[in-house]
Design brief:
The complex is a heterodimer of chains A (113) and B (116). By secondary structure, chain A is an all-beta fold. In chain A, the strands form 2 sheets. In chain A, strands 2, 4, 5, 9, 10 and 11 form a 6-stranded mixed sheet that branches. Chain A has a 5-stranded antiparallel sheet with strand order 1-3-8-7-6, with no helix packed on it. Chain A is globular. Chain B has no helices and 11 strands. In chain B, strands 2, 4, 5, 6, 9, 10 and 11 form a 7-stranded mixed sheet that branches. In chain B, strand 4 and strand 5 form a beta hairpin. Chain B is globular, with a radius of gyration of 14 Å. The chains are: A mainly beta (113), B mainly beta (116).
Amino acid sequence: LAKTTQPISMDSYEGQEVNITCSHNNIATNDYITWYQQFPSQGPRFIIQGYKTKVTNEVASLFIPADRKSSTLSLPRVSLSDTAVYYCLVVMAMDTGRRALTFGSGTRLQVQP
Amino acid sequence: DVKVTQSSRYLVKRTGEKVFLECVQDMDHENMFWYRQDPGLGLRLIYFSYDVKMKEKGDIPEGYSVSREKKERFSLILESASTNQTSMYLCASSTDVGLHHSDTQYFGPGTRLTVL
């Protein structure tokens, strides 16, 4: 199974750009990478998903290099409300036709005023 | 909006008790999942289901079983609860959009289970 690793924690200040990297070895060519955000006492919620190169939505950008062994979630101009835990999720398509899901252990982002 | 609900937010049980955690989704999703979340370990998949009466083991199925008799409901069962099963349990659902795509998972609020 693909394994994912992320930094345990990161600190930032309001207005800064934050980049969180997830490493995923042995990711297959048809894997997607998805990022989730989780606030205390809530379930994770979807932020962004990508397959290759760059994806951008109203919340974040996701950069995936050509070798696809890592991906970087970029949060532009963070605010205090972006303080949360961020998880990367690798979806791997198995030969059986089903999918194997592997979450990273999460990165706790603390945004200071 | 998709809504995933879990039967309890907090639950306290004793060692050896049988525990049922219920999850219901209202968007007709094919896929449903049970995870446990522990500090430093992130989310780990226990079981998942792609259809009614269908189940597949995730990464840590030992000590758990599941039931999916109706499409909207997915139950996690601890046959004989143990203290090492004290954890946050999260249910999720998603649509099935094909082999080479990924579908967004929608999570419930979680059930914090304490086994004494």
